[in-house]
Amino acid sequence: MTTQNSRSIHPLRRELLELIKSDESILSFVEKSSLDGLWFWDLTRPEHEWMSDNFWKTLGYEPTEKQHLSSEWQDIIHPDDLVVVKKNIQKHCESPSHPFDQVVRYTHKSGQTVWIRCRGLALRDKNGKAIRMLGSHVDVTEIKKQTIALQKRNQTFEELENTANIGIWDLDLEKNTIWWSRQTKRIHEVPDDYKPNLATAINFYKEGESRSIITNAVEQGIHCGIPYDEELELVTAKGRTIWVRAIGKPEWANNKCVRMFGVFQDITSSKRLKMQLTKQHELLRVTLQSIGDALITSDTNGNVTWLNPIAEQLTGWSLEEAESMAASDILNVINEQTQTDLPNPIIQCLQKKRTVELEHSTTLLSRDGAKYGITCSVSPICTESEELLGSVMVFHDVTEERQAGMEMKHRATHDPLTGFYNRSEFESRLNPCLGDNRGVLTNYALAYIDLDKFKAVNDTCGHHAGDELLKQVSRLLKDNIAKNDVIARLGGDEFGLLLADQDEEHALAKAQNLCQVVDNFRFYHDNRIFRIGASIGLVPITRRWSSVAELINAADSACYSAKKAGRNRVFVWKEEEKRGHQRSLESNWSSRIRHAIDSELFELFAQRVFPLHSPSKVIFLEVLLRMPDGESNWILPDSFLPIAERYSLSPHIDYYVISSVISTLHRCQHLHRIAQININISGQTIANQAFIKKLLPLLNNTPYSIKEKLVFEMTEATITRSMVDSVAFVTLLRSAGIKTALDDFGTGASSFAYLKKYQIEQIKIDGNFVGNILNDQVDEIAVKAFADIAKLRNIEVVAKSVNSAKQLQRLKEIGVDFAQGYYLHKPQALGIVLDSVEEEVISNA
Fold first, then answer.
1. Per the database record, which ranges form the PAS domain (predicted)?
2. What is the pLDDT of residue 3?
3. Assigned CATH class of 294-397
4. Could you report the average pLDDT of every consecutive run of 10 residues in the chain (845 residues)?
């Protein structure tokens, strides 16, 4: 058998694919089966059968060794089991109510016996005759081995159950059935053939406090996953009132309780028997509570008594080798960062007689030299009288998760184009420098670097060339700074450089050297040569600076002065520069912004957002803002919004945009063609009470037909700035009938946490993740994780910055709901976009 890429698809497999498309019950069957193999059998031609690759790999064969013939598997199945299989197939074909589901033995290619759970579903023609069989194989060999190994223990436990008067019960919530062991029935004084249900089981408890306690305990177990252990009064079927100890533990799967199980003991006549059984019971209870991926138990001396297969795999020691060895000999844990040995947690637990948890940066060194990142806890096993019996250690392999977390952290703190720190991380690294200088110990200086003539390359050769130029200059800067210097890309063609252990004289010499290095650099593109240059603003970091923002503004101001003085030079910040330049620069900008608001000069643009999984006759938009520059060009928000926020003008701009959009929609003749229109809200706005007092009447007077289309967007940075204000603002919008969206999702370290705290309808994945989705597996995994978590919360997912058809197709496959980007639609004036909607309606008419 060859792979699907190198040969045509088997006809039965093709038929199965078509059936899955047309019959949801078949798809449901496949989805619910945990498959180690899949088969599809033509009952009209019994020798004709298709088996999946995993079918044979589970049995030790390469698919190329086997043919699609039923005789192939019949030759290696146990003869007795073959008889059972044939009999069950016949019964299932005759009556659909008879399930085809049995565990059978196959002979593995190695000669060993493999236990397989074989399940199947008969597919019938219009007359009800079975013509095909679809089935699955699941390897249950390990379960069977454990079952056989536990048979002797179970016999011993059953004898103990009878002797100690302890019964067992098991509640299956998916099937709504409850099972009582024989001893449980005897305690209730009911016949052996008695079949209880949850309601009748609860009604045996004495009416009043006991029944109320057990009812609440069961509900808490089912809904919250809380186990219980209660001593209660119970009235038997013969009317006798007895005291019982009822213990229950819930079992969860797929975020819901699927099963509860426990023990049931008559404690009326003998407390002495209860004490005799405490050791065994406590061992069972703690083990049930502690079982995880890997498990090691020890005696009171710290010697290993048992470890499960996963613990064998991670430590490199088998149970036979490790049993009775000191736990410290098989368990070698170190700190991931420092690579230093950590104390043995089992020994610590036994000494302290309390639960011990290892730090999050713990690494387990396996016997074979492999390293595993783990989370770990060790609990003591004690009797009610606090007699120590031993310990149980549970640990979980988090190597991949930890690596992914490190990658995500790196992306959250670094610029994807240059690899330098981003602005947010750079600011956080500047903070300690201000503190250090308050203590007079260390000299620092900040250099603000702005490339000269970068715009000429970008405008002449395009953004691709501009990106390549930034990469080359970044390498140049990195090669000419010290290892302890910190460099970041602050945005566009601007860089920040923190010079450590540098007084003003040495910092100036270093900055001038960088100027000279960039001046000597030549950028080659399409047979053209460009000379760049750099202007640098230099600020010595002293006690004078009270905040990072103030420090960066001063460096920016000095850089501006360097450009104004002729470019390609270093300008050292002086106090008088701060007072003069910054005041005039920002005052001019704030005046222009106020004038644009008062004169209604701002222009609303819009970019369309497209659904990915079904064609739509309605359109989705995001409103974007543009400011005129007085020369028939538009200024983008990145240039004027920071100034607006600094001068508290953001609430005025946001109100202008919201009211303008509502007014525009009032006039729109084809409002029904617009499904959604997103409006961005700044972080300053959400806490501004004057804005909120103006906004509420505006929204209350807006018709529902318009409000239902509005979605207010906030960035992660906005939420991070003020959690309390953000929650209050989202709650206010929800009460007014306005939906909310979280923009730039994924850029923060607590992105997933926001989905729990905020009732939002939509997230927009940051373009840095979408841009490399085809080339970077971490970005692809991140986008899929965002989409999967959002779906659990019923939140729509939008991918931003989509720039190719291949990206679009991959986003569809991942399950993203909407896409937005220049590849799909370049922003246009809002009026033009709405006019195109009307033109579509007219052309369709």
1. 280-353
2. 44
3. alpha beta
4. 54 81 73 74 92 91 92 94 94 92 95 93 92 91 83 68 79 90 91 92 93 94 92 92 90 89 82 52 51 80 87 89 88 85 89 85 88 88 86 85 77 88 88 62 82 82 87 92 90 90 84 91 87 91 83 88 84 65 57 83 92 88 87 76 80 92 89 92 86 91 92 80 78 90 74 69 87 85 87 90 90 93 90 76 47
Residue type, 131: I
The token duo for 309 is: 């297969």
Instruction: Kindly report each contact of residues 32-35 with a partner whose C-beta sits within 8 Å and lies 24 or more positions away, as own/partner.
Output: 33/119, 33/136, 33/138, 34/138, 35/136, 35/137, 35/138
CB neighbour class for 616 (10 Å; exposed up to 12, middle 13-18, buried from 19):
exposed
Bridge partners of residue 91, in order along the sequence: none
Query: In the 3-class helix/strand/coil scheme, how is 256-268 assigned residue by residue?
Result: EEEEEEEEEEECC
Beta strand pairing call for 522-525 and 528-531: antiparallel
125, amino acid identity: D
What pLDDT score does 247 carry? 93
What DSSP assignment string belongs to 149-196? HHHHHHHHHHHHHHHHTEEEEEEETTTTEEEE-HHHHHHHT--TT---
pLDDT of residue 727: 82
Cα separations in angstroms, 497 against 236, 441, 446, 539, 595: 80, 20, 6, 11, 36
Instruction: Look up residue 786 and give its amino acid.
Output: F
- Eight-state DSSP code of residue 326: B
* Both structure tokens of 262: 């426990």
Q: Judging by beta carbons within 10 Å of its beta carbon (0-12, 13-18, 19+), is residue 217 exposed, middle or buried?
A: buried
In sequence order, what are the residues at sequence separation of 6 or more whose Cβ sits closer than 8 angstroms to the Cβ of residue 236? 187, 188, 189, 204, 242
pLDDT confidence of residue 661: 93
pLDDT of 6 reads 42
pLDDT at residue 466 in the model: 87
- Hunting for tokens 């009416």 — which residue is that? 207
User: What pTM value is reported for the model?
Assistant: 0.38
Cβ neighbors of 734 (< 8 A, separation 6 or more) are: 740, 759
Structure tokens at 436: 């250090």
3-state helix, strand, coil in the chain (%, to 5): 45, 25, 30
Indicate the pairing of strand 710-715 with strand 739-745.
parallel
> Quick one: DSSP state of residue 65?
G
Q: Is the distance from CB of 352 to CB of 363 less than 8 angstroms?
A: no
The structural domains of the chain, with segments of one domain joined by +, span: 4-139, 161-269, 294-397, 415-573, 600-844
CATH for 161-269 is 3.30.450.20
- Of 75, 30, 70, 37, nearest in space to 56 by CA: 37
Indicate the CATH number for domain 4-139. 3.30.450.20
Q: What's the Cα-to-Cα distance from 65 to each of 50, 105, 571, rounded to whole Å? A: 14, 20, 76
Return the CATH architecture of domain 600-844: Alpha-Beta Barrel (3.20)
Residue 746: both structure tokens together: 């994924």
Please give the full DSSP string across 647-699, using - where no structure is assigned. Answer: TT-HHHHHHHHHHHHHHHHHH-TTGGGEEEEEEE--TTGGG-HHHHHHHHHHH
Instruction: Answer yes or no: are the C-beta atoms of 167 and 265 closer than 8 Å.
Output: yes
The residue type of 433 is: C
φ/ψ of residue 688, rounded to 5:
-90, 110
User: What's the pLDDT at 209?
Assistant: 93
- What's the gap between Cα 447 and its chain centre? 38
